[in-house]
Amino acid sequence: MNIQHIFVVGAGTMGSGIAQVAATSGYQVTLMDVVTEQLEKAKLNIARSVDKLLEKEKITPEQRQAALEIRMTDNLEMASEADLLIEAATENPQVKFKIFAELDQRAKPEALLASNTSSISITRIASVTRRAEQVVGMHFMNPVPLMRLVEIIRGLATSDAVTQQIMDVCRRMGKEPVEAKDSPGFISNRILCPMINEAIFALQEGIGTPEAIDTVMKLGMNHPMGPLALADLIGLDVVLNVMEVLQRDLGEDKYRPAYLLRKMVDAGHLGRKSGRGFYVYE
Question: Is 189 a catalytic site residue?
Answer without folding.
Answer: yes
